[in-house]
Automatic annotation (TrEMBL), chains A, B:
Protein name: Aminotransferase
A GO molecular function held by the record: pyridoxal phosphate binding
Source species of the chain: Candidatus Roizmanbacteria bacterium CG_4_10_14_0_8_um_filter_33_9
Keyword tags: Aminotransferase, Pyridoxal phosphate, Transferase
Transmembrane segments: none
E.C. numbers: 2.6.1.-
CDD domains assigned: AAT_like (cd00609)
Cofactor(s) needed by this chain: pyridoxal 5'-phosphate
Amino acid sequence: MKNISQRISLVPASPIRKLVPFAVEAKKQGVTVYHLNIGDPDIKTPDVFIKSLQNWKRNPISYGQSQGDPEFLEGLKNYYHKLGYPFIQIAHIQVTSGGSEAIGLTFFAVCEPGDEVLTFEPLYTNYNSYATIQGISLVPVLTKPDTGFHLPKKIEIEEKINKRTKAILICNPNNPTGTVYTRDEIEMLVKIAQKHGLFLIADEVYRDFVYDGNKHVSLLDYIEKMPNQIIVLDSMSKRYSLCGARLGMLISLNADLMAGILRIAQSRLSAGLIDQAMASHLMEVPSSFFKEVHKEYQNRRDILFEGLSKIPRVTLEKPEGAFYCIVGLPVLNAEDFCKWLLTDYRLHNETVMLAPASGFYSSLGKGKNEVRIAYVLKISSLKKAITILKNGLIKYLHTKNTRLQTRK
Amino acid sequence: MKNISQRISLVPASPIRKLVPFAVEAKKQGVTVYHLNIGDPDIKTPDVFIKSLQNWKRNPISYGQSQGDPEFLEGLKNYYHKLGYPFIQIAHIQVTSGGSEAIGLTFFAVCEPGDEVLTFEPLYTNYNSYATIQGISLVPVLTKPDTGFHLPKKIEIEEKINKRTKAILICNPNNPTGTVYTRDEIEMLVKIAQKHGLFLIADEVYRDFVYDGNKHVSLLDYIEKMPNQIIVLDSMSKRYSLCGARLGMLISLNADLMAGILRIAQSRLSAGLIDQAMASHLMEVPSSFFKEVHKEYQNRRDILFEGLSKIPRVTLEKPEGAFYCIVGLPVLNAEDFCKWLLTDYRLHNETVMLAPASGFYSSLGKGKNEVRIAYVLKISSLKKAITILKNGLIKYLHTKNTRLQTRK
């Protein structure tokens, strides 16, 4: 009997989701679990989307077009025009089943098996998964807490480039670090990509989540100058609290690339019709929605940073954007701690779920004492989660020490 | 500047969709286009699904679980129990973004790059696309009109099996031929798979569409006997007129395979939440819906077969199931004819769109004078489409002959 493929065994389990069975078990026991493990916002989806479902008339629910539904594509075009990029046309947009599909399509479109994509770690864990699925190598350049996970010097980046390097990939604002790259950093990458003839890919899913009055620097600022090299990945999920509507976008001015991507898109027929019909109302979302959401996240960021900073031997940088941060813990094995919180620890019958950070590194052995925290819960829940984490950590360290001493 | 990948250029354009721009152009000119090119039924989606959208309450629209939403999984389990397979548990089901994702996941899970999957042509075109994307070879065994596209002898199948063969894939009822395999044929495949230790994969998306009182023979009948080898692919699209809700299913009792597939599923986070919440009502669809749909399709099949059989030099076998058939035409290049119908031919300002059949073969050069027809339109439209096809064909042959004579 033939075995399943070797390559499927290489696909890593998601650090965000692999502990889910333990959370499910805890909930079965009546325990409240605060989910800081996943960027699944509790912010309400704008009314205009919900109402478009409630007013649903279309029947049958038939296939959409492979590039995307015309009304949704028109809405997206208007969104990018309003954002300041009036040159973006419908031909430059491919609608994807979530930002995830946009990652997979991009890797496939720019790399042969064995090719390399240079990126910065800690990194969004699913870049790893898609690289494995597509048979390509992610080559990570390490970024560090003491520089707020900002980019290293040009020479440190360039020394990782070789003949097999096809692209540089950034996530900006960054998941999992919360770093927002400066214009100088973006221009450094633009110059490197120009010099070495590389594709330059930006995942800008968190474009709207930049705090303290700073501005996001989009690769769309440079896409007319490098029309064949720049690819921007985007998503409806975070901006509009639409994670469960699987809608992402891939933006490129490279006609050959878009034609190839459309052929792959045809093989999966279309993205969801209902999701797209709903999301085609994106330009009707009032600007007050984004203002409130922005304010809410900045508050959450402040409360998380303040709360965690007070816990002895816990280290973190103040995130500049997105809604994540990498947190160093005084433990040897953060995954064991995350699992223990779900299986063994309760405070007033509540616990917290975190994502172990080792899965956010491409280099083996990195991030073992770190977790990624998503501050996607309302402030009252976030405060409780911080208290649980603090008390849980003390208890865990005590338990582990006792165990160690007992063994002696 | 680096080029896009070679492998993306190998992905074939969909024969079902590549002529779409010409159809769009015709519609812009006010021409009615009857779509016989794609299996996108005009049957109304059952009320219970539409109502669940109209009663939508959930907010925010958050991520679903990677395996599938619990309520939808429960509904699917009940569906398979009612179908006669009470041993199927939720652990045996993976929800996919359309049947398409199930095909891609399966190929990835059972094959290394360069491995072979044996299948029968004409074949569902997207098997070709996914094989190319996954770097595997589809090895086709030819089936022929004079045997109603039924399977060839065991020896003809076995002689295509070698060390790299990992699986046999069938589509039953078949898209694009409309063939429904007999129990003898299915048991022959079961024996071959047992003898050679191969995975045996059945795409049973059209399970409900079997005519003339015949019964569908599902691989689920054999899955307990070969729990590690059989994989069944399924979809909500055709059965419930839900093509635009991207929901498919993969059924396997192989725990290692399901664990690997779940890890890939985690990397794309989840299938659509709204689609799944809607589809979780599947057991509430009244049996009268299926009865009426079945009757309607059998009528359409009869009318199509009768109508096309009367056109001189047009050849087809009476389809036994699904809602497709392969039709031989007296032309040298069916793709040119299909394109010409969209660009140059109108009957009372109407025309018809067909899918050239060459893309439904894996072997180069096959199917050049054939089209695939999907009989998914109501009978009045179908009759008009047949008349257009008949008159269009006469005109096309006349035009071509005139051109040829002019050239002489």
